Amino acid sequence: MIEILDVSKSYNDATFAVKNLNLTIPNGEIFGFLGPNGAGKSTTIKMMTGIHSVDSGSILINGMNIEKQPLEVKKIFGYVPDSPDMFLRLKGIEYLNFMGDMYEVPSSIRQERIRALAERFDLYGVLNDQIQSYSHGMRQKIIMIGVLLHEPEVWILDEPLTGLDPKSAFLLKQMMREHADKGKTVFFSTHVLEVAEKLCDRVGIINKGHLQFCGNLQEMREHFKSDESLEKMFLEMTDNA
Ligand SMILES: Nc1ncnc2c1ncn2[C@@H]1O[C@H](COP(=O)(O)OP(=O)(O)OP(=O)(O)O)[C@@H](O)[C@H]1O
Ligand SMILES: [Mg+2]
After folding, report:
1. Is 134 helix (H, G, I), strand (E, B) or coil?
2. Which terminus, N or C, of the chain has the lesser number of Cβ atoms within 10 Å?
3. 92 near 123, Cβ under 8 Å?
4. What is the pLDDT of residues 46-93, one digit of tens each?
């Protein structure tokens, strides 16, 4: 469960990247976070994961405050950042073992998990290559595998589907569904409205740091009193003109 309680953040004291944001994502839910470029999605995610501090408000993950108990909280979530260009000099397998060490994944189960995940994501054959030789999508997938290695309860994914080929995207969506169906939490940002429409139990739409809407698609239609597509409702809600 994720609780974002009246959170605000400004990078420059003049404008807010996120303003008075309130969101609660219960266990068992896939929550999609939507909004145009610069809306405040990654800023929110970076505050959830303790990368950026909050200016005011608080964020709880499974009841624990990310700023007060960072180490405990970091053990229970997995975070996939918006850019996968990290650890480029490491070989895939070195990065995965590094993640295994960090999260104390016992060596008895680690190799089997690495093999199973790498095979599912079609990366098993390149684990001995440096990550800098990987394509964007391959980098996305190796980061994802590193995150899944310690089987975190809460998944926080910043545009995880960008750059994935159809098979990998299908697989990841399926894994997100399975994870939520086990009573765990999935929070992800996306620009792909069809994905949000098909995959998410609820969506939040943010624009210029302000939450415009939070609910399921049915509630959004009622809000708009219409049968419009998610795309049309999204565009109306985030029309900056
Ligand atoms: N490190 C930073 N320093 C200063 N300003 C920042 C920083 N990161 C983000 N911003 C600003 O905060 C606002 C929100 O940015 P954010 O990255 O959260 O948007 P986003 O919704 O993730 O957009 P995108 O869809 O393009 O990824 C933008 O105005 C951006 O310019
Ligand atoms: Mg972003």
Report:
1. coil
2. C
3. yes
4. 999 999 999 999 999 999 999 999 999 999 999 999 999 999 999 999
Question: What whole-number distance in Å separates Cα of residue 201 and Cα of residue 25?
Answer: 10
Please give the structure tokens belonging to residue 134.
Answer: 């990987």
Query: How many Å apart are CA 186 and CA 176, to the nearest integer?
Result: 7
Q: Which tokens sit at 138?
A: 């391959």
Question: In angstroms, how far is CA 130 from the centroid of its own chain?
Answer: 25
Domains detected in the chain: 1-76+158-163+182-241 (3.40.50.300), 82-152 (no CATH)
- Protein residue whose Cα sits closest to atom 11 of ligand 1: 17
Distance of CA 132 from the midpoint of ligand 1 (Å): 26
The verdict on the CB of residue 11 being under 6 Å from ligand 1 is yes
What crossing angle do the helices spanning 107-120 and 92-102 adopt, rounded to 10°? 130
C-beta separation of 80 from 88 below 8 A? no
Contact 188, 155 (CB under 8 A): yes
